[in-house]
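DM from R.C. (forwarded with permission)

"hey, sorry to bug you on a friday — could you get me a structure for this? deadline for the figure draft is monday and I only need the backbone to look sensible"
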Amino acid sequence: MIEEPHDRHEPVSASEQDPSRAHLAGAGTALFRLVRFWSRRWVMAAAGEVTGDMSRVQDILVLEAIDAASSRLGEVSVTDVAHELGLDRSGASRMIGEAVKHGYVTRASSEQDGRRATLSITPAGAEILTGAHAFQEEVFARLTATWDAQDATRLAAYLRRLATETGTHPS
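My reply, with the result:
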């Protein structure tokens, strides 16, 4: 029997690529379902809870992006924030401009290349970011409150591992 090649537009599942990974079927779909569900909800809820002002949603996204990029890169540029947020440079620049205007971010000349601007989180921005992270931890604790402690601990470790690996792979 001759095996027909897959239509190049038809997705190939992980189990079709490697039958030993069949037990992972549906995990990718579940991951993206969670991403869609939480992508804006958490930041909107955090903005309201942490700052009392829903208009700070974009500021929190910018702060999260700067924080994530700085842990990998040191100096953070507009381009780095754009990459973190999945936006073009001009969209990221507008969001950064608002965060600067609100006092959460500063722009300065790079120590490595004076033609390049670098971004830093101000003390007020760090306070907002700390509050957002506390909110995120509280939500995770609530969602896993009825779980066996080992299961919640295992998921937490896997989530941290997955988050770390997203920084090492191109998007």
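R.C.: lifesaver. The chain has one domain: 46-165.
me: no worries. Residues 123-143 form the longest helix (21 residues).
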